[in-house]
């Protein structure tokens, strides 16, 4: 496949499209620190419109609030880079899109913006599934390393988000 993306991202995106298509699942993506890279990876795949209907790039807190209905109190209490905010982003993407599954990503790609509690390389993820109890939404925090470049952190986050979109093994 001819692509502008690194081979590992392109190959995993192709799997996400093929496996979700085979499973009859639609997906939605809510991105912050990846800035649309997950959506771009999926749309590089011919036929991706069969599974991807919505990709939200909500880089600012205001966008998270307005587009995904993230409660401002959650952002104020935990910060934009928190499992709570990722959970709310995933829920918002699922509700707004009507998809079967939504993944959300928020993090500190650097080189600035990190703190002692959330250093550069900290990225949070959440997955929401249609008709699943919202209390059972899977949240995850990864530390890709403050020694990594902004590009590396965003690429690692994109790969992890794509992995989260793969249907469970039968």
Strands, helices and their partners?
Elements: H1 7-23, E1 27-31, H2 37-43, E2 52-57, H3 61-68, H4 72-78, H5 83-97, E3 101-107, E4 122-129, E5 138-143, H6 150-164
Parallel strand pairs: 1-2, 1-3
Antiparallel strand pairs: 3-4, 4-5
**Protein structure class:** alpha/beta
Strand order of the largest sheet: 2-1-3-4-5
Low-confidence stretches: none
Q: Report the radius of gyration as a whole number of Å.
A: 15 Å
Query: Fraction of residues in helices?
Result: 40-55%
Number of strands: 5
**Mean model confidence by pLDDT:** 95
- Cα-to-Cα separation, first versus last residue: 27 Å
Strand content: 15-25%
| Contiguous helical run count | 6
- SSE pattern: HEHEHHHEEEH
Largest sheet entry: 5 strands, mixed
* Shape, principal axes of CA atoms: globular
Can you tell me about this structure?
With 170 residues, this protein is α/β, with parallel strands linked by helices. It has helices at 7-23, 37-43, 61-68, 72-78, 83-97, 150-164; strands at residues 27-31, 52-57, 101-107, 122-129, 138-143. A hairpin with an 8-residue loop joins β4 (122-129) and β5 (138-143). α1 packs across α2 (37-43) and α1 packs parallel to α6 (150-164).
